[in-house]
Each structure stands twice: as C-alpha cells, then as structure tokens.
Amino acid sequence: MVKYINVKSKARNEFIDVTDKIQEVVTEEGITSGICYIYVPHTTAGITINEGADTSVQRDIQVALTKLVPFEADYYHREGNADAHIKSTIVGVSKAVFIDEGKLLLGTWQAIYFCEFDGPRHRRVAVKIIKTPKASA
Predict the structure, then answer these.
(1) Is the whole-model pTM more than 0.85?
(2) What secondary structure does DSSP assign to 47-100, as a single string?
(3) How many domains does the chain divide into?
C-alpha cells in the first residue's frame, strides 16, 4: 500500500524536512526491517537526503542549483518553470532508505528533504514500505 504525505511549500525554491513524517508512516506500519521507498509524483519537485543539523547546507544547495540552472534563460518550455523541471531531473524524484529496528537508517546528520522548485504549492510525497522477510536459521 502507498501512503501519501501532504506538503505545502511557501516559496518558489524551498527544502522541506519530511523525515519525521516519513518515520511516522514507518512506525504506523509496524515494520521493523525493510525498505522505505519515497517518491515525488511531480515534474517540478524532487527528494534528497542531506545535512539535517545545519540549515545553511540546504540554502547552499539551492544557491548552487540556481547558478547551474537559472530561472531565466533561453528555454524552449515557455510556461516559466523550465528551470524547475531541470532541477527536478538533477535532484531526482525518488529515494530508498533501509528500515532497521523500526527506524529509518539515516546517518547521524542526515535528513530527508522535499525539494520545491516551482512553489508555493500543495504537493504530495508517496511512501511505500516493503517488509524484509525474516532470515531462516
């Protein structure tokens, strides 16, 4: 079964920490060992795992992406959000995280971020958990 997390962005470019919401889904499912798949079904948003303790890292990533892919350029796509589509492609729309002892297996400083590139908007993040079968002795 796929569960959805609702996300509301407030800015055109924004990283929103969804780690706790995804952990809530894992906890609700009662899975102690498995894989958590996270997928963003939007063409102008993404998902990433990175530094969770220092928020300046997310800002640095956003600034670097904007330098690589500026808002205004000679794009063919004329809806005014071509940069958002490109940033989504660079960052990616899915991640997989191991579940161990009922917890997302993230590094000490890692967090999961929904990456908004065409906000503000109401968005969804799909979460699917696959239980790992118990190993036989």
Answers:
(1) yes
(2) EEEEESS-THHHHHHHHHHHHHS-SSSS-S--SS-HHHHHHHHHH-SEEEEEEE
(3) 1
Instruction: Examine residue 42 and state whether it is found in any structural domain, yes or no.
Output: yes
User: What does the alpha-carbon distance between residue 131 and residue 32 come to, in Å, rounded to a whole number?
Assistant: 8
In the three-class reduction of DSSP (H, G, I as helix; E, B as strand; rest coil), residue 24 is classed as helix
Instruction: Give tens-digit pLDDT for 64-94.
Output: 999 999 999 999 998 999 999 999 999 999 9
What pLDDT score was predicted for residue 133? 80
Residue 129 in contact with residue 31, Cβ under 8 Å? Answer: yes
Token representation of residue 56: 């300046």
Residue span of the structural domain in which 72 resides:
2-131
Tell me if 137 is assigned to some domain.
no
Q: What is the CATH number of the domain that holds 29?
A: 2.60.120.460
Is 117 among the domain residues?
Answer: yes
**For residue 17, which of 64, 61, 67, 55 has the smallest C-alpha distance?**
55
Rounded CA-CA distance 68/22 in Å is 30
Alpha carbon of 33 to those of 19, 72, 127: distances in Å? 17, 45, 15
